[in-house]
Design a protein that fits this description.
Elements lengths: L2 E5 L5 H10 L3 E5 L3 H9 L3 E2 L3 H5 L4 E4 L4 H11 L8 E4 L5 H13 L4 E3 L2 E2 L1 H7 L2 E7 L1 H14 E8 L3 H29 L4 H8 L7 H4 L23 H17 L5 H18 L7 H8 L3
Parallel strand pairs: 1-2, 1-4, 2-3, 4-5, 5-6, 8-9
Antiparallel strand pairs: 6-8, 7-8
The protein binds nicotinamide-adenine-dinucleotide.
Length: about 300
């Protein structure tokens, strides 16, 4: 049986690890937060007192952490003590430079590694239907495939080390920009005295359709159930979206290109977070957009 050490048992990590347990794998987890440890225990995980204790003797180590700094901090405490042939798989969303540094730390010990960030949110993590964007050597990517098939539905190898993170950053730049576009159009539609339900019916089946409108409409009572119907409880927080758009700006600067819409979206979510709304789902950006539109 494959054994897994799983570090970072938050909104995403706990259900992902829970699916591995449900599939019969031997999973030991660790998180610095007691609330997360308790939630993971309830899903059947064995919990260790430290990241090193959770990972020292396993086939695969999975990390699902907030950012690159947390990832590298955890790697510094665990990599030296991992047994030979342990595969490192980071599923967090982190900057490309940190992802490559994590691969380098694994390579220094001759350990295979992959970056495998996800899309699909908490619902996808719970249902085991995530999309994984995988970067790393072909053999390492193939070795983790059975675990990815348990936690996800769509698995795409994007290229070598760091390429999974690079694709993820591009995807989330599209999402951040498109949610603002949808929000602006819906606020405009209301000012034009249109029925938002009819706007949804048309746009979601026309050339304006996109995930932000069709699956995650930022207006309550319009489209399928979404965080807007629960007072914008996340979901995917505005703080995480702001982080990801910051990563896209960093990535753009690293190859000396401008992404004007991405930059504008980054500043909108940054202002939303600064105003104290970072804990809300990112679709609550419609409230911020309303004030920008002087509604
Ligand atoms: P989260 O904040 O709920 O979970 C992160 C967990 O990591 C927390 O429980 C925290 O206590 C733990 N942690 C932090 N530092 C640690 C350390 N040094 N050792 C052990 N545990 C530590 O965040 P999340 O929503 O689960 O997101 C995790 C990652 O997945 C992020 O990189 C995020 O960008 C990405 N992501 C999130 C979503 C989403 O919808 N929430 C979707 C796609 C990708």
């Amino acid at each position: 049986m494959t054994s897994v050490g799983f570090i970072g048992l938050g909104n995403m990590g706990a259900p992902m690890a829970g699916n591995l347990v449900a599939a019969g794998l031997d999973v030991t987890g660790h998180d610095v937060a007691e609330r997360a440890r308790a939630a993971a225990r309830a899903k059947g995980l064995a919990i260790a007192d430290s990241a090193a204790a959770a990972t020292a003797d396993h086939d695969v180590v999975i990390t699902m952490l907030p950012d690159g700094a947390a990832l590298l901090a955890v790697y510094r405490t665990i990599v030296a003590d991992l047994r030979a042939n342990t595969i490192l798989m980071d599923c967090s969303t982190v900057d490309i430079a940190s992802a490559r540094q994590a691969h380098d730390m694994a390579a220094e010990r001759n350990l295979p590694s992959v970056d495998a960030p996800v899309s699909g949110g908490i619902a996808g993590a719970e249902a085991g239907t995530l999309t994984f964007m995988v970067g790393g050597d072909v053999s390492a990517c193939e070795a983790v495939r059975p675990l990815l098939d348990i936690m996800g539905r769509t698995i795409v190898r994007c290229g070598g080390p760091g390429c999974g993170q690079a694709v993820k950053i591009c995807n989330n730049m599209i999402l951040g920009v498109s949610m603002i576009g949808v929000a602006e159009a819906l606020v405009l539609a209301r000012k034009l005295d249109l029925d938002p339900g009819r706007v949804f019916d048309v746009v979601s089946t026309s050339s304006g359709s996109c995930w932000a409108m069709n699956d995650y409409c930022p207006l309550p009572g319009v489209g399928p159930e979404s965080p807007a119907d629960h007072d914008y409880a996340p979901g995917f927080t505005a703080a995480l979206m702001s982080k990801d758009l910051g990563l896209s700006q960093q990535a753009a600067a690293s190859v000396d290109v401008a992404t004007p819409m991405g930059a504008m979206a980054a500043s909108v979510y940054e202002a939303m977070v600064a105003s104290g709304s970072g804990h809300l789902d990112f679709s609550a950006v419609i409230r911020h957009v309303r004030s920008l539109m002087r509604e």
